[in-house]
Amino acid sequence: MKLSIIIVNYKMWQLTRALVESLLKDLPKSTEIIVVDNNSGDDSVYLLRSDFPEITVLDNPENMGLAAGVNMALKKAKGSYYLILNPDMVALPGAVQTLIDFMDKNPEVGVSGGKLISPNGKLQYSCYRFYTIMTIIYRRTFLGKTAMGKQTIRNFLMKDFDHAEIKDVDWLMGACLMVRKKAIEKIGKMDEQFFLYFEDVDWCRRFWEGGWRVMYVPSAVFSHFHQRSSERNAIIGVLTNRPTREHIKSAIKYFWKFRGKEMPKHE
C-alpha cells in the first residue's frame, strides 16, 4: 500500500463527506482512506459506512482528542505514507499525487504539506516558525497591535517569504500533513497529551530533532474551510470559549515539554 489517508471526524459529517468525495474523484492508485469518528454522538459512522463502503470507518467510543484519533488510525494504516487531513478540507485535482511524488523524490523529508487556500482562492498561512511565549501573548492580547507585536506575528506567519516556493519550515498546520512511515517509526506517533492544538507543532519539532526535514510544497493545493474557533482576547476566551482554553492548556504543556531545549535549526 502506497498511501493511507487519515481523517478524524467530530460532528462534521457533511464536511467529511465532501472531503471523501473530493478524494475519491482523484484517488492515486494503492490508496486507502481511514476515517476515525471521535464519538460524534450522531449518525456520522452509519452515514459514512453507508455512503462509502470502500473506505474504513473506525468508531472511537470516546473523544480522546485529535492526536489520539490520528494514532488510532495509524495503528490500522498500511501505507508507506500517511496523509492526515482535517474534515474541513477539499483536495484539488492532483494535490495528493503531487505530495506523493515529492516525498518519493526527497527521502530525507519526514513531513510535507501543501498550500492551503480559502474557498475564495485567498492564501491561508499554513507554515510557521516555532512559537515563543511572546508569540502567544502578542496573538491573544492588545499587544499584538504594537509595532513589536505586529513584527513578531508577521515573522511567526512567515510573511517574509514567497508562498509559491518550496521551503523548509519549522512546522506545518496539522490540517494537511503528508508523513513518512519510516520517519514515524523513529520519532513516534502524535503526543496524545495534546487534546487539541500543538500536536502538529510538537510533532514537526520532533521530526526536526530526529533529523527529518519538514517542507512546504505549494504545488499541492487544498481548499480549506478554516475558521479560528478560539477568540483573540485571551481573558474573555478562557471564560467563554473551550477551544481557547484548550489552546492555552496545550501551549503550557508544549513549553513545559521543551523547557530548556534549544530550537531545532535548519536555515
UniProtKB/TrEMBL annotation:
<dbReference type="InterPro" id="IPR029044">
    <property type="entry name" value="Nucleotide-diphossugar_trans"/>
</dbReference>
<protein>
    <recommendedName>
        <fullName>Glycosyltransferase 2-like domain-containing protein</fullName>
    </recommendedName>
</protein>
<feature type="domain" description="Glycosyltransferase 2-like">
    <location>
        <begin position="4"/>
        <end position="186"/>
    </location>
</feature>
<dbReference type="Pfam" id="PF00535">
    <property type="entry name" value="Glycos_transf_2"/>
</dbReference>
<dbReference type="InterPro" id="IPR001173">
    <property type="entry name" value="Glyco_trans_2-like"/>
</dbReference>
